[in-house]
């Protein structure tokens, strides 16, 4: 199994989506992905960054890209790609007070039809057999993420496997599916996404 790992800081700005598209294209070329798979990855990563540029109050994003080629047939030397992309919004750290740290200044989850993570949820489940996506909060800022692969999840190991354990949550409470999508916020009678209930983070 070979693996690529990239952590790329980008400003929250429209031009950052173009920069991330180029990075994902280079990673896809390194994995020798077919045009359809490459286009899927580029579109999903670009959509998450563009959505943050339009709607996030953060000033910077950390784009995390991890990719593997997993050998699934030693005789035929057949490999399956596994790609994880997470877009973390860098938010201010909690403020210390005499009573302890204040609340985490995390933005609300954005998950609606036709944009951002909502569009990614539809694409990743349509384009990839074992694809999934989600939104996970954290002390350093929330992360919108997706996993793109046709490989059985039990074979996703290495740093991607470790990252997914945290990203998915203890009981998969951070995983989002198309069935959970609410109407587009510009549509009549739409309602905001429900709050996400999380188990306490381990120290």
What does this molecule look like?
The chain is built from 4 helices and 8 strands, in the order βααββββαββαβ. The chain has helices spanning 14-31, 35-55, 116-127, 158-168; strands at residues 2-11, 60-73, 78-90, 96-97, 100-101, 132-136, 143-149, 175-176.
- Round the Cα radius of gyration to an integer and report it: 17 Å
Give the helix tally.
Answer: 4
Strand order of the largest sheet: 1-2-3-7-6-8
CATH class: Alpha Beta
The helix/strand order is EHHEEEEHEEHE
Q: Can you summarize the main beta sheet? A: 6 strands, antiparallel
Number of domains: 1
Shape: globular
Terminal residue distance: 31 Å
The CATH architecture term is 2-Layer Sandwich
Number of strands: 8
**The named CATH superfamily:** Histidine kinase-like ATPase, C-terminal domain
Which band does the percent of strand residues land in?
25-35%
CATH topology descriptor? Heat Shock Protein 90
Q: What is the average per-residue confidence, as pLDDT, rounded to a whole number?
A: 83
- Low-pLDDT runs: 189-203
How helical, in percent, are the residues?
25-40%
Class from secondary-structure proportions: alpha+beta
């Amino acid at each position: 199994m070979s693996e690529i790992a990239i952590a790329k800081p980008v400003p929250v700005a429209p031009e950052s989506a173009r920069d991330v598209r180029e990075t994902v294209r280079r990673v896809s070329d390194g994995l020798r992905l077919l045009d359809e798979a490459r286009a899927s990855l580029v579109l999903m990563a670009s959509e998450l960054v563009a959505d943050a540029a339009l709607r996030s109050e953060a000033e910077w994003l950390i784009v995390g890209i991890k990719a593997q080629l997993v050998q699934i047939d030693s005789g035929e030397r057949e490999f399956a790609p596994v790609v994880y992309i997470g877009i973390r919004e860098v938010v201010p750290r909690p403020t210390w007070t005499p009573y302890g740290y204040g609340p985490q200044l995390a933005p609300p989850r954005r998950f609606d039809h036709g944009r951002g993570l909502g569009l990614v949820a539809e694409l990743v489940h349509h384009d990839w057999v074992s694809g999934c996506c989600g939104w996970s909060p954290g002390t350093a800022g929330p992360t919108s993420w997706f996993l793109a692969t046709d490989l059985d999840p039990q074979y996703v190991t290495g740093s991607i496997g470790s990252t997914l354990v945290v990203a998915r949550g203890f009981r998969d409470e951070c995983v989002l599916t198309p069935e959970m999508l609410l109407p587009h916020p510009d549509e009549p009678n739409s309602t905001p996404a429900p709050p996400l209930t999380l188990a306490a983070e381990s120290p």
